[in-house]
Request: fold
Amino acid sequence: MTDSSQILNSNNPNASAGSSAYVQHHLHNLTLDLHTWKVGAAQTGFWVVNLDTLITSWILAGLFILLFGFVAARVKSGVPGPIQNFVEWAIEKIDHTVRESYQGKSLLIAPLALSIFVWVFLMNLMDLLPVDLIPDVLNLFGIEHWRSVPTSDPSLTFALSISIFILIIFFNFYSKGILGLGKEILTQPFGAYLFPLNIAFRFIDELVKPLSLSLRLFGNMFAGELIFILIALLPWWIQWPLGSLWAVFHILIIVIQAFVFMMLSVVYLSMAESGH
Reply:
């Protein structure tokens, strides 16, 4: 793997080219072509999946389930431990937030909101690891490319948003029925006489929801990942001060983006259930 300190050596006439190669190297996913079963980097096509995104997100989801399951199985009254305190605090805060934003009756929303927030937060949190830590370790086993931040991959953010979009469609049908939903699409917001315009506005309104969810999360996390990569290109004596300052600021972005994704999901589902 390219060493960033060597790239910016003043005696290196190809420093600019080396810097570009370093950045590109860190922005390539480890991919798997499901058609040929070939593992590589920067493969494209419909049947290509990003292995690093899938594996990292699955591992973090497993850690989330194990942690909360462990606490639930050993919950105790009186003086709970710090892990139980944290889990209870997270559940209470998210439950309170959902109660303020969601006006429906579904019991799915609060657990869904908790899962979204914690999972997206954990995936975002991977951005605070040193840029070369995981790639250098995996390079010892012959794996040359690995992106550690799943939410900087648009395929994952779109998958999350499409999952919410499917739930929005389900909530629309479940709460209003086929006839009620059809009437709403044809008559709102301009009345039945302008039903073509109503359909077009409804289509745009529904399409914007998964786009806004996915692109907002992807854009913020990709920008944060790219800044950390650029900081890694600097001389070693300036990397830690700048990296630490950016990490402190980026913690806010990590939390806010997880919260925003959760809140928009809850609001969209509430809108779907309550009507136009």
